[in-house]
Amino acid sequence: MTKYVYLFTEGDAGMRNLLGGKAANLAEMTRLGLPVPQGFTVSTEACTRYYADGETIAPEIQEQIIQALHATEKISGKEFGNPKNPLLLSIRSGARVSMPGMMDTVLNLGLTDETVAGLAKLTDNPRFAYDSYRRFIAMFGDVVMGVERRAFEDVLEKQKRDQNVELDNELDAEHMRAVTDGYKEVYKKATGSDFPQDPRTQLMAAIKAVFRSWENERAQYYRRMNGIPSAWGTAVTVQIMVYGNMGEDSGTGVAFTRNPADGTNELYGEYLINAQGEDVVAGVRTPQPIATLRDVLPEVYQQFAEICEILEQHYKDMQDMEFTIERGKLYMLQTRNGKRTAAAALKIAVDMVEEGMLSREEALLKLDPAQLDTLLHPTFEAKALKAATPIAKGLPASPGAATGRIYFSAGAASAAVRERGEKVVLVRGETSPEDLEGMALAEGVLTGKGGMTSHAAVVARGMGKCCVAGASELTIDEDKKQMIDPAGKMYGEGDWLSLDGSTGQVYDAQLPTSDAELTDDFAKIMEWSDEYRRMGVRTNADSPGDAARALELGAEGIGLCRTEHMFFEEDRIFAFRKMIVAETREARVKALDEIIGLQRNDFVGIFRAMEDRPVVVRLLDPPLHEFLPRTDKEIDDLAAALGMTNVKLHGIVERLHELNPMMGHRGCRLAISYPEIYEMQTRAIIEAAVIVEKEGHKVHPEIMVPLVCDYRELEILRELIVKTADEIISAADAKFTYEVGTMIEVPRAAILSNEIAPFADFYSFGTNDMTQMTYGLSRDDAGKILDDYYNARIMEADPTAHLDVNGVGALLQLAVDKAKDVKPEIGLGICGEHGGDPASIDFCEEIGLDYVSCSPYRVPIARLAAAQAALRRK
Amino acid sequence: MTKYVYLFTEGDAGMRNLLGGKAANLAEMTRLGLPVPQGFTVSTEACTRYYADGETIAPEIQEQIIQALHATEKISGKEFGNPKNPLLLSIRSGARVSMPGMMDTVLNLGLTDETVAGLAKLTDNPRFAYDSYRRFIAMFGDVVMGVERRAFEDVLEKQKRDQNVELDNELDAEHMRAVTDGYKEVYKKATGSDFPQDPRTQLMAAIKAVFRSWENERAQYYRRMNGIPSAWGTAVTVQIMVYGNMGEDSGTGVAFTRNPADGTNELYGEYLINAQGEDVVAGVRTPQPIATLRDVLPEVYQQFAEICEILEQHYKDMQDMEFTIERGKLYMLQTRNGKRTAAAALKIAVDMVEEGMLSREEALLKLDPAQLDTLLHPTFEAKALKAATPIAKGLPASPGAATGRIYFSAGAASAAVRERGEKVVLVRGETSPEDLEGMALAEGVLTGKGGMTSHAAVVARGMGKCCVAGASELTIDEDKKQMIDPAGKMYGEGDWLSLDGSTGQVYDAQLPTSDAELTDDFAKIMEWSDEYRRMGVRTNADSPGDAARALELGAEGIGLCRTEHMFFEEDRIFAFRKMIVAETREARVKALDEIIGLQRNDFVGIFRAMEDRPVVVRLLDPPLHEFLPRTDKEIDDLAAALGMTNVKLHGIVERLHELNPMMGHRGCRLAISYPEIYEMQTRAIIEAAVIVEKEGHKVHPEIMVPLVCDYRELEILRELIVKTADEIISAADAKFTYEVGTMIEVPRAAILSNEIAPFADFYSFGTNDMTQMTYGLSRDDAGKILDDYYNARIMEADPTAHLDVNGVGALLQLAVDKAKDVKPEIGLGICGEHGGDPASIDFCEEIGLDYVSCSPYRVPIARLAAAQAALRRK
Lengths: 874, 874
Prior knowledge:
homodimer; alpha/beta; eight-stranded mixed β-sheet; eight-stranded parallel barrel; 35 helices; elongated
């Protein structure tokens, strides 16, 4: 029979997939002899089984749970449901990877009208017992039965008003008993049943609720954001309750072995005396810095510090821990590798190498390349910042600078971004997991309450999103959609606000930003990455400015220079439009003659910026009609400027219209119809190269033909390009060499790669188009479809962001294999969006590409991801 | 050294690829001891070499030509360029397959000012000698140097006017000498040089001209139409001239061993006494039926009839021959398998089997399945025909009925069809190869001159296009764009005309047509086909009427019933639109409830029509917006009818708009978003099946989910379909079974077929979409692109008509292999347009599909093609 339930003493850290990360680490801490409240774990396989069995827990699994429960009773010396010595349990979720706040937890399980009395007697603390009971009823009601939390809170608030007190802890035992009764009434009213008085019923229901929570909306969204397959499922950990709220020698806290904001090697965290864990995380009471615990409970602090040392050494990584002190005894409730800012991650990695804890390889592999993004985000321009006066200060919860319009709900923020393309700052009292999507879309997040480990702070750091938390000087009213600053100024939705996530300052203005300054740690990590990576890293850049920025960030060449982007600029589009509407070859050539000078200058700028590095220039790709005016008035204006009748220009625009432009007259198809376009572009590229070579650089243009689906296209266009180029080179007596290659972005080109390779010096995989055509899914129209597909759990991630390895990847593999069969020396790169995505970069290493190319700010990510990909295969 | 030149005595019929079809058959006839004017052939490889060498004939090939020339001189006892006994040659093209009239010919080569005098003396016939010379000058001028033919004709016309005669043969020797001088002047004026007096120069120039003609526009177009690769090249045949114009004991003719119009086993053809071959083909003089030759030259006729017998027995096929009689001696100039009408092809095949000449397998393999199309085309409705009075009668050159608007040039006809979607009848004096495209697009062709073997007749029969030729009662003026009938009535462009290609009658009206009546020969061929084919043949039919027609034509089931077509009917679209614009599930379900009855009735009709045969029903596929009104006014009207504001409906229509609808929210994606649509359709299908089963039929619905790109889609929708269907079947206590399958039409589905197959009882390959996505080429937008691609010789054929075996075919093969790996019993079919294309059907056999499905009229084609495909693999 399959084993679905494991005692902590039966597990270890290696069993993460089966037990979930949290439980595996509890088992590991148990193995290390650290003080852990014991318990057991219902495995992720049981979760899968739960869904396979139509959302029921199979009898055999229930049986195993009961057996583990008995073992836990024995360890604890308590008995589940025994009023004289009741065992109380916490029920928590735990997936393979941490999904903070995404799923549900139930505490104090096992309390009933009978056992609560026993607990009161046993602890000699009826107030504590009823406080625990009412918390349990509320959690169980909320998590298991879906009762609105608000209804319970109203009972508590009313009791406080009735007793004329402000804080929960001013209520005494009798008040709490009354609150408990009120909670039970709320429960019965909402669910139609009495609160269950059988602890085993409570237990099974709670376990089911955790399984169910794996599929709640925010968990699905989180998985999608983080590429977590829904098939993994969650485990459920059932653990003996310990209490931080049993008096002044009790407490609870969270801590990191190093500072997660900047990486400093110091114990970092917060605790609350006489409180339960949720009080810290929820950010309702403001906790104390962990260092002060040394004075309050010196022995406990000493023990904790030693445990931190042991754990960090053991895991070889900065740990994020939860602990509870129950009547002076320390219990470890959790340890895991701590989330950290990008700057902290780099510093910790570099420090741990210098401390001898990690090798360089290990250190590189521990980093999350995507996180580097945050380091590269702009900060406010120094001058503007100096001139600005902050209106308030909060906690510097997640670094970066953000400026945007205020919205007070995640929904409104999302709508503003999605529907109106606004830049948004999300302003909330506190955030909750429901706000996840709004946070992801906002430039930055501002909260009025909560600490550095509050939901907003943790999530924002994970996202690399600027966040100022706990700005309590600000009065935030989400319902009225207004915020009032200490000076009494009021802000409404749509007003501008700027946040500095590194200082916690809040400004009532739209502050200009400037580029990030990169630290020595960053430089060191990049240096190590370059040492270990096999693949080159190039950039997608269309202008000398972009090229220069990418060079600073370590790009080794340009992997994609889109020549059409050069024409969208106001002063050029006019010349370009003349070419498009030309009706004869002669008229087109004449219009192209006007354009060639502009193109040549563009390339001169780019070649100069890149100095001796290779530059891949893609010849004209998009459908011509993309460049045309759209509205009637715009057409009329253009017609007038061109001296053409409106009717005629309307006709031309009409004829250029396509039903499916993504699969229409674009890419090299344009050049088969109008060879003079690519001829002009080749002239511009090669003439520019001649100029820059004469200035003393070793130019190396790589001319790329897009959208090839048949070798004949490339054969014909290669001949045109080579003829054009060689004439110029020979006339100018230039020495540089150039290459002619193609984008592989059409499924047929991948399938027939062996036919195409003989005519290509290099391939660059255009995975954006390849993904669209392989799926038959237009990126422009995918929005609603993808949303529905995430909901239906057909897709876990957007295939245009993360390469679909199974489908699109198979075509890429085929293209590589077939090309190498006929031309082993062919150059291979990728220039789709996936070139900057770490998981996709790993696949590029797998299939042996020579380089990846991505947008300038993703170059460092790609350097690190490429190094990791190489190291994983060592 | 490669051998590029072959004497007739060195070849045989098996060397078709190297020598071209015509020369291979001349060699074969030589081998059989038949009277053939001897000569040699410059091979197709020499043509390829010619293009590879930059359109020059390499010295080694020139050398081989000269050697073969010497050998030919020896055989003939004449000498090239010797005025006393000059050898004269004909130079003809010849590709692997016959391309009638597509390439160029030069006759009488070797004549010069010197040799013409010798010829005159030798034949004692100066008139003949100068007539030959002037013909040579004109042909050489036209074919080799591009001089306008018209200019030569003007000289001849002027001479006739000057001499006051009407016919060429009324001119005497002196007149012809004067015409010759005039031709030389025309030549010099047009080319700037004297007419070449060196026979070898003439020869090499003529060979080059033939090579060049392989790439002329009409040859390219013909190859594209017939799927002939341009890489094949043409051979050049150089042959001793024989003359049919040397008096009353000379003549020339063309004949078939059987009647090419109806297949009757009789010698069939025409000849002219005292004429050259071009006189017959051009249709200028009206030739005599071959039977009359028996009386005119009985011995020659007897010899010819015997040769016909020998050739037909030898080739086991009806032969199409050219012959010349020179002073009473018969020469065979050509034999080849004769083109014939579809009815003739069937009759000949059946007769030859009955005569014991062919086995059934051989007979089937000799047929061209595509030709059956013509048998299935409508004829005029008998009643309408009886009521109509013909305005004129021509030759019944190619059977069928055509009705359309008159156009007098191929260009105008093409434009009318392409740009305005008109039905067109092309009316010409005579047609020429330049008219090919216009003929292909027209409903029918009417010519004023020419016989049953004139260009128009031969080409139209090949195309299976209705043609009335030589309607000399009509005065056709192409320049004035008018036609006058014997009664004096005048017709202009755009007027309606009807042609009966089976009777030669011409009507001045738009006559209604009715279905074809199929012959016993047809039935027998179909019966034999069914005996030998392995694959099933189904039809694509959306209505009971289509289904019934397909059944008559032999369909064994429905392979594709498109449910959306049912909604385009006027009275239904309204209900459907309500569903589309519904904004909630409830509103959508309500609208669907109105639709379900209509759908159920549709399926009842189709199931009844198909009786016990399987029916594949595809669930809703196209983007919803396809059903919406387009113009502002239409939207306003719909809004009013729906009681919705215009603004709101405009908004809905706007939101449904997609940039690339082919890759948008369509197919099963609609059902992932709105499962209620497929649920309704499943209900309608299954409820209809229940009704028809109760009527006593064995229904077997196969429900097909379109546009699957991920197995999860099918898993989810299969569950929905099965649940819905099983409930209905169980409630009705029905006994029938059903299947759930998917269209494989997205590249990703082919690649991941092993993941999808477990959820599919069957696959049907949707090769239309698969082709679009594999090429990244939208069929809606491909027009201009394909034209340019044909011109650039990137594509030889439209991949949406003829399956791209290399690219798209590779994906199909992959899908089949991967599906069979996991589910060997999976059903496999094809329902794209390719299911009715013989070459594509052959590929379907190759990859082991169970059936093909095509439009009703293509069912017979598919039956025959499937039989051939199976026989080829025996």
